[in-house]
Amino acid sequence: MGTLLKCYKPLFSIRFSSFPNSLRSVQLRTHSFNNPKRRNPIRRCFSSLSPSSQPLINGTTLDKMDGNQQPGSPSSELWLHNTMSKKKELFMPKVEGKVGMYVCGVTAYDLSHIGHARVYVTFDVLYRYLKHLGYEVCYVRNFTDVDDKIIARAKELAEDPISLSRRYCDEFIQDMVHLQCLPPSVEPRVSDHMPHIIDMIKQIVDNGYAYRVEGDVFFSVENFPEYGQLSGRKLEDNRAGERVAVDSRKRNPADFALWKSAKEGEPFWESPWGPGRPGWHIECSAMSAAYLGYSFDIHGGGMDLVFPHHENEIAQSCAACKLSNVSYWIHNGFVTVDSEKMSKSLGNFFTIREVMDLYHPLALRLFLMGTHYRSPINYSDVLLESASERIFYIYQTLHDCENVLSQHDKGLRESIPPETLNVINKFHNDFSTSMSDDLHTPVVLAALSDPLKTINDLLHTRKGKKQAMRIESVAALEKIIRNVLSVLGLMPTSYSEALQQLREMALKRAKLTEDKILQKIEERSEARKNKDYEKSDAIRKDLAVVGIALMDSPDGTSWRPAIPLPLQEQQVAAT
């Protein structure tokens, strides 16, 4: 693989092409990573979500809600909070209509936790929304497969470090599929990019920003006066970087390794400084330059990366090329447990797999989107139960729509009543305004309430069933909700399938079978016939305690997942 051009022009001409927005497409893409012989990075940038139609409102289409914007013709302003300036800024890409975005990926040595899930759901929402606005997006998200932590874990398991990391990269990809995170345009791995990393270190050394000590190469922070511009830290306040042992050979404790000399039993690559491997920070600088050039639009990651990782990236990239520039630095808040950051090092984490064993992946995604991305979110059972109950309600409402509309697939008029149009327009405005204001997903999720309630009134109430153009109203409401859910990454492949999965997981959490619940429903019906209301109420309450709600109707009694009664009481007490 050839070395980078000076000043790190992109390694190859980036091509933007369409990538379908479907879970099936994501699954197909992941198969290539299961081939151990595949070592070369992907060299294409996939772009726009597949177009989807939008509801016809009185003969006209509802503006901006269908994903049909022409690539390169953004349809709305977008304001994003820039960590560098510490304020919200109007998003203006360097190349009109095109966006280059780099997000720091996982260090693959274990299963990923929901703190990782928050990072990649956050940037998946941004990726989807940029494409919804009509931008062509090249989204690069790396894998760190060469690192101290990987080597240490591989020694514990007596496994080859690259092989171990490859395995956990594959596991991570499957987690992202379940969370409906679209695959990035490019997913480079450190082990595939050693020539680019070595070439960048050579340029930094040649430009006088780094020094060699025996077989190691360190970046000199004192030679870069702008060091600390992202984090706001003063040089005298800095300490040795994370993932780096204190080393008395360094000129300044805050100097960090660009290249580490080989140690016995560790993987290494040949370099001008002898055999060794790269430091953590240089890897992202080199890979972002390889695919996006020295100057691009968005660099993102978790808030914990502001210092030292992103601070060091800025120093390295500018040292290699003085024209290096990232327009927007975007960081998401932590997931906390008892107000402490969730992390592997603290041992207070829950893996994505552990959570998805009990909760639907899209309930987890909804939970993560229910708090603004820059705010901390506290992990708790009650919030996950709330998200699960909410997404069941959304899918049940849309499933009911689907059943009714399947009986009226012909002869629908294009016009709808003014009341319905008002609900749709308000929802559309709430969506556009909130998403364009630094991705305010909690406001969008709350705004779903009115159109969902309107649908349920039209489908199930006596008054609603008598309304003129009722079916047309239901069709238009269902369509705009579906379009918004698609942009948010919350559309299931099938409403009925998702509802069944949500029921199965509720049963698992309740430690019950459906047959057992049906038996309880029968016992309760018998008690009611015998006017034994005390027993009837006790059965209902026993099921409510474990998160099973009974619903009585003229057609009989059915059940649905609900927040367990003790957690509901906990919620009330907390407020």
UniProtKB/TrEMBL annotation:
InterPro entries: Cys-tRNA-ligase (IPR015803), Cys-tRNA-synt_Ia_DALR (IPR015273), Cys-tRNA/MSH_ligase (IPR024909), CysS_C (IPR056411), Rossmann-like_a/b/a_fold (IPR014729), tRNA-synt_1_cat_dom (IPR032678), tRNAsynth_Ia_anticodon-bd (IPR009080). SUPFAM superfamilies: Anticodon-binding domain of a subclass of class I aminoacyl-tRNA synthetases (SSF47323), Nucleotidylyl transferase (SSF52374). Keywords: Aminoacyl-tRNA synthetase, ATP-binding, Chloroplast, Ligase, Metal-binding, Mitochondrion, Nucleotide-binding, Plastid, Protein biosynthesis, Transit peptide, Zinc. Its EC number is 6.1.1.16. GO terms for molecular function: ATP binding; cysteine-tRNA ligase activity; metal ion binding. It is an enzyme of class 6 (ligase). One of its GO terms (cellular component) is mitochondrion. Residues 430-499 form the Cysteinyl-tRNA synthetase class Ia DALR domain. Transmembrane segments: none annotated. Residues 51-74 are annotated as: Disordered. Its cofactor is Zn(2+). It is found in: Mitochondrion; Plastid, Chloroplast. Pfam families: CysS_C, DALR_2, tRNA-synt_1e. GO terms for biological process: cysteinyl-tRNA aminoacylation. This is cysteine--tRNA ligase. The lineage of its organism: Eukaryota, Viridiplantae, Streptophyta, Embryophyta, Tracheophyta.
